[in-house]
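chain below, 547 aa
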Amino acid sequence: MFHPKISLSVSVCINAALVFGLTFGAISPLLAQSSLKSTPQQSTTKSGAVRQKPGEMLANGNFAEGLAKWKIEESGAKSKAEVVKEGPNRLPALRLEVLQIGDQSWRLQMYNPGLKIETGRKYTLTFWAKAKTAGVITVNCMQNHAPWEHHGAARELPLSTKWEKIVFAFDGPWDESDARITFTNLGTAVGQIYWFADCSLTVTGQRKAAVAAPVAVATSAAVATSAETPKTPQPAPITALREPVGMYSSPVKAHGALQVIGTKICDSRGKPYQMKGMSLFWSQWSGPYYNSATVNALAEDWRCSVVRIAMGAEEGKGGYLENPEATLAKVKTVVDAAIAKGIYVIIDWHEEQAVKHLPQATAFFKQMATIYGKYPHVIFEIYNEPNGPQWPAIKSYSEAVIAAIRKTGSNNLIVVGTPRWSQDVDIAAENPITGYKNIAYSLHFYAGTHRQFLRDKATLAMKRGMALFVTEWGTCDASGNGGLDFAESQVWLDFLDANNISWANFSLNDKAETTSTLKPGTLVNGRPKFSDLTPAGAFVFNHLVAP
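prediction:
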């Protein structure tokens, strides 16, 4: 999962009275239902046109000139956009209806280009929004040209069916003469309708010196205890690695074949069992970690009970589809090492558009099940992060792959991907796969981006009878490179522990990005030194070796 880099501070107005602020964190803005006291009051000219606010950076952000200056990008999707007098206090509002979805949810987006972003400046973006059906969109600031890098303002925002005012600020991370504000991931469902009104971007000051950790400052206890705010401040920096407790022993020997019972993944005796481990990076781009030395170190020194193979299968990216023999050799090396060491291993088809490659995926998992179906160590994750395809298409793909696996006689645990980068588990839970046993569903999160709203979706999915497996999660924001948030990571880990949900952290790699656990050039062939690990790596390592 790669969403825009996040480095922002948030302030939210609730009924024009309650305010919450958090600096240098990556948190979901709180949303306030509109009221007469907090609805926008824009001045007008004698002709009745709405005036632009002083210092306003967005051209026609108030939609007084209809759709002028706004761009709608469909790229395979179809939509109907019009400006209507349906905003708060009957202000002009953009009404955007989804008529056809594209092959990816972001391929319906709207944006306002031509912005100049400067390093060190603070910017505040505000807008009013609602949706026909409650859902989640993404708002970001990005380059308006290749390579389309993002500019720090990036947030997945849950929208309700009532008008809500969203206010957040971001720091300009570099100078950019052609940037844009983008509202994306709008193409999630045919018939969905979004309304946007009174969009505004202004410069709000010079960036202050960064602090070591975000500290919440609330003027209202009612807001400070909101479900969308961190419950605890950031912990003190980690300065040492914990020592593993006791001698290593094989998790598979102790727990045997995995089975789904109700909403839990259980061991061979029917007892709920929580696996914890690491996910390797994309197989075609990973460093020297697809080997037995790495697997042995993860088991003995990191105390991983599971390792995940992120077998790259994206089309045109040099993975399994282009180089099947070399990729398969890497996969088998890790699987064989995990079996020999006695830990569980996930074989993951790492792709967002797997529905386009059903024949290849079916053949691959049939081969893997034929070879490894007799080993209780092996878990099949048949679709990493669906992005674009809706649940009916994902379900149809999954049923075909599951059928191929089961026909080999394998009853190994299978993990099914869920819509929107494996986040919409509640939607999948409304119409789960039936006719096959031992099926769990993937839930992915990045702590700097995904907060209580995603835990709420997970809770709802479990209430509907679904067994979850967090086969990928990160300590930072969803871009993988920014917004490190150990406080929210801890909230997530506590949630997973409380619900016996297994997890694999992403990723065991030395790429120079926040989510990597290893510093560049580090090998994994024994107990790591503190200097070998990134801040994310030290945090995750200490949780893995904890009793």
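The mean pLDDT is 85. The longest strand covers residues 193-206.
thats it, cya
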